[in-house]
Amino acid sequence: MMKSFWLIKFLFVCLLTISQAAVSNDRVSFNQVPSLNYKDIDDILAVSVVNVGITKKRGLNARKSNWSTGTHIRYRINRTSVIEANRFLFKEVSASRLATAFPKVRESLEHVSEQIEISELPPAEQLAYWLNLYNVSMLEQLIKIYPITDLKDEISERTTFLNKKFIKHRNTRLSLNDIKYKIVLEKFKNPVVIYGFYQGNVGSPSLTSKAFTKDNVYSQLSYLAREFINSNRGLWFGEKGDIQVAEYYQGTMDVFDNEPEKFRTHLIDYARNDIRYNIRSASVITFDNANYEIAEFESQYSSFDSMQSKKINELFDRLKSWKNESYPDVAMNEHQTSSTNKVHLAEQFKRVPKELLESFKVKASKL
């Protein structure tokens, strides 16, 4: 009896040893939780995004003179939103080697999905991955079509690049709309996720200068929700107490189960205290607050207030400090595996900060 016990124990230990050896040869061990690093995205966004911050809403008792209609564009533009939303340096990026970084980062993100199963990651890690892949891919496409500055047809028509299946995910091809509607909005029911999809136009959620991570994804999304709802481009009060919200919301109402009161509650949750009553008491909510102008940085924004000018000047100072330095070495999506895969992008665009600095000289002198 005792011999049988020890024999069984010996066989069990052997089996366990063989199993552990097999697992150790896999790309990700069963007892490891991969953690993705997006430092390369942080680096390219740091030199291409101008953070404007939350602006003060000027919509209560507004007059219709604040609205105008284009001669050939059949939507209304809220002109009080022209200095809102974080700005992307489309002109400078498209003319520099930094433009080549975005497809390379996208390809590197695609490579991650070949190394690990994204659906087996913790939910916050999954969400950060998909939002980063979406936004990098969106920027890649927007840079390609620049200098188109009116994005109405580009981001709202079914035949645009939003449905182009150029993103590789294992053995399938995905479009931007696939990621947004068939993956993220299907799996993540928290309405705050809708603010993580960058569209490139002023009248949509902002792009932050930092990548999403498993640790910051929900805090960043909450910030973007507050920034958007409390801006004139996200929510506007009409003369008769009605609310005109961004057209962007029309494509995301599924996350509110298409129920107006759920949507109203969401607006109230993220609105400033001094406008919550107006949202709660509004009898009508319409989706006709729009601005499809590309959210790029131009000299027209020299009218920013002193705080905004300070933020822009800080960007110039940061670029100056990099003038004589090599671009930081970049390791893409380093995860805890037996053999870590690194994709170095530094050599591809290490002189970009200096190039951008040269293009800023005229604009910087005007601020």
Automatic annotation (TrEMBL):
<keyword id="KW-0614">Plasmid</keyword>
<dbReference type="InterPro" id="IPR006869">
    <property type="entry name" value="DUF547"/>
</dbReference>
<feature type="signal peptide">
    <location>
        <begin position="1"/>
        <end position="21"/>
    </location>
</feature>
<feature type="domain" description="DUF547">
    <location>
        <begin position="119"/>
        <end position="229"/>
    </location>
</feature>
<protein>
    <submittedName>
        <fullName>DUF547 domain-containing protein</fullName>
    </submittedName>
</protein>
<keyword id="KW-0732">Signal</keyword>
<dbReference type="Pfam" id="PF04784">
    <property type="entry name" value="DUF547"/>
</dbReference>
